[in-house]
Design goal:
elongated; Beta-barrel_OMP_2; 10 strands; Porin; ten-stranded antiparallel β-sheet; Porin family protein; OMP/PagP_B-barrel; mainly beta; 52% strand
């Protein structure tokens, strides 16, 4: 799935790069776009979420089957100068992961489907190069907090009843890169970003020796985003 993400982004980059002006005296689109102190936009995109597990003992790994999810959100940008912007990108992220726990012979016991809807609140620093005709590469990174609406945190049931529980509030850092393309009417930006959880998200079962959660030291989100931004 990650390969498909990179291929999709590559196709989009090539398509828009072919329209950008690379000659010595290009026709500059949106010449004043980066001169405004405040900027607004929105983004659409795809994601693939995973988990990183740490274990107490070597009793077998939890297998994660990943699937493609969807992102949508808004952008608020405070521009410090030509090269540095502070961005707030609140949005919704829909994703699903299927976990396979070791040591079970029954599929009903071994498999847990984790469907999550995150409300994300990333605060990011965008560092750009000088504008090159009608395109401008950049790096972006920062911290984010998310509200997991499908966490089951308040459920009294646990895995013995078929309910997998996670913490509702999560924290992560994000890092990525992309290219701003200045078209005649708007700025279009494809980007790739990694999301790396900072906190343990697992809620243990009521039984401390649970076959599902007893051997897990920590469970942290890992994710890959491909976003398409319109400003």
């Amino acid at each position: 799935m990650k390969i498909k993400f990179f291929l999709l982004l590559g196709v989009m980059l090539c398509s828009f790069a072919s329209r950008a002006q690379f000659n010595e005296k290009p026709v500059m689109n949106l010449e004043n776009e980066d001169k405004h102190p405040l900027n607004w936009g929105y983004y659409l995109g795809f994601n693939q979420y995973d988990f990183k597990f740490d274990y107490k003992n070597d009793l077998g790994d939890v297998l994660v089957q990943k699937s493609m999810g969807f992102n949508v959100g808004l952008i608020g940008e405070l521009r410090f100068n030509e090269f540095l912007d502070l961005r707030f990108e609140p949005g919704l992220t829909y994703t699903s992961r299927t976990l396979g726990f070791p040591g079970f012979t029954s599929e009903n016991e071994a498999i847990r489907e984790v469907k999550s809807t995150y409300v994300n609140f990333p605060l990011l620093l965008k560092v750009s190069t000088r504008r090159l005709g009608n395109w401008k590469p950049f790096l972006i990174g920062g911290l984010s907090t998310s509200l997991n609406l499908g966490s089951n945190e308040e459920s009294l049931d646990d895995n013995s009843s078929g309910t997998f529980r996670m913490k509702k509030n999560t924290y992560a850092y994000e890092m990525g890169f992309g290219i701003d393309f200045y078209t005649e009417y708007f700025k279009f930006t494809p980007s790739i970003r990694g999301v790396f959880g900072l906190t343990d998200e697992l809620i243990r079962d009521n039984d401390p020796n649970s076959a599902w959660t007893g051997n897990i030291e920590s469970m942290k989100t890992r994710g890959l985003f491909v976003n398409f931004t319109f400003e």
